[in-house]
Amino acid sequence: MQQHRRQPELVEGSLPVFVFPTELAFYADDQASHKQVLTLYNPYEFALKFKVLCTAPSKYAVVDSAGAVKPQCCVDIVIRHRDVRACHYGVIDKFRLQVSEQSQRKALGRKEVIATLLPSTQEPRQQKQQEEKRIKEHLAESVFFEQASFQQESRAASAGPSLLTVFLGLVCVAALMLPTLGELESRVPVYLHLSVNKKLVAAYVLG
């Protein structure tokens, strides 16, 4: 005899709520931005009912602030800012979306969405440009310091020949100045006469 699977009982507030976007930005100088859309997704195999709450309900108009979402479907919630004034610039308001099963009243899950009114659409762009400028300046400084340290190392490496190199050069020059083996008319002792091969080696070392 087969036993029917029972859906596990959901604890209040434990159900993940999927909403996009999670932040709303309204711009005073952009009339089109005064209307924003929140999309609520229901990836579950049972229907959900939802309700939208707001910390400043007098500033916003929410179209269909309550409704239902079929299983594995989504709904769009339209939010309009209806109090665009300078005194509200930068103020952060919050929307809370509560979802529950259609047969129950307790909220199985909730999600908060931040809403902000900004004076101009140019401000975020200017902030982004300033941030990009700072990054470029930082990278340029890093490259400059790397090049400077590399040049210092190169100068240190090529500051001059070492004492060993100078000593070897003097020895080779002296060897070339000594008489060749077989020369009779020389006041230099015979044991200091060098062969042609040894002089060739000295000349090769001098380069």
Automatic annotation (TrEMBL):
It is a multi-pass membrane protein. Pfam families: Motile_Sperm. InterPro entries: Ig-like_fold (IPR013783), MOSPD1/3 (IPR039283), MSP_dom (IPR000535), PapD-like_sf (IPR008962). The chain crosses the membrane at residues 163-182. Residues 17-110 form the MSP domain. The keyword Transmembrane applies. It is found in: Membrane. The keyword Transmembrane helix applies. Keywords: Membrane, Transmembrane, Transmembrane helix. Its main location: membrane. This is MSPD1 protein. It comes from Polyodon spathula.
